[in-house]
Amino acid sequence: MKRSIVNEIIREADAFMRSFGFVMPPFAYLTPEALKARVASDGAMIRDHMMGWDITDYGQGDFDNLGLFLFTLRNGTAANVARGMGPLYAEKLLISEENQLSPMHHHIYKTEDIINRGGATLVLQLYTRTEDGVLNDTAPVEVMTDGQMRTLKAGEHLALAPGESVTLEPWHWHAFWGEGGKVLIGEVSNVNDDRTDNIFHQPIGRFSQIEEDEAPLHLLVSDYDSWL
């Protein structure tokens, strides 16, 4: 992805989130230089916990059709979990454009509540997995939606209107997209590691390769290793 496109997505996403009353924390608006200085002084948690802007085309160069906007507001680590102290959770805001696919995947450890925070309809396609992790294209899918256990057919679509949510366990293979417009999505989960905990059905990448055609407005979490 070109950096100029990433910058424009950030501007549009910020305006969309603000339209629903969500304002990002102050560190979100730091310039790359200011964030580097912050990390060097007292903000290493932002870097080490991968908090911040996250825009991905899954390495396929087709963001409009295969992509996702995310912002990680807070996150813990496996070390927190091991000692039972510190942040044991993660929270994100996501934006899925109309018919923009977030491709089929599951997580190894993460259980997540996916919440339609506003906008259009959020549609998920769901499968369960076998004991060895393979997508099961025949078995029914048991899933919790707002405190109600539901049984879906393999591959059935689950539509969430604004305010509705679903709890996805590690055994849920899932893909999702916006229907009828763009959707603001909340994600609340246990700690999250996007480097290692995403298992995709097709061999694709988690992060984008950035073409530096202009200076970054704000750094992406995938920039941290090289910039910070």
Provide an overview of this structure.
With 228 residues, the protein is of the alpha+beta class. 18% of the residues lie in helices and 38% in strands. It contains five helices and twelve strands. The protein has helices at residues 3-19, 32-41, 44-48, 78-83, 224-227; strands spanning 52-56, 68-75, 89-96, 102-107, 112-129, 135-136, 141-145, 148-152, 157-160, 165-168, 172-190, 198-200. The strands form two sheets. Strands 1, 2, 3, 4, 5, 6, 9, 10, 11 and 12 form a ten-stranded antiparallel beta sheet that branches. A two-stranded antiparallel sheet has the order 7-8. The radius of gyration is 17 Å and the shape is globular. The protein starts with a helix and ends with a helix. 32% of the residues are buried.
Q: Cα-atom Rg, whole angstroms?
A: 17 Å
Report the structural category: alpha+beta
Please tally the β strands and state the result.
12
The number of helices is 5
How would you state the average pLDDT, rounded?
96
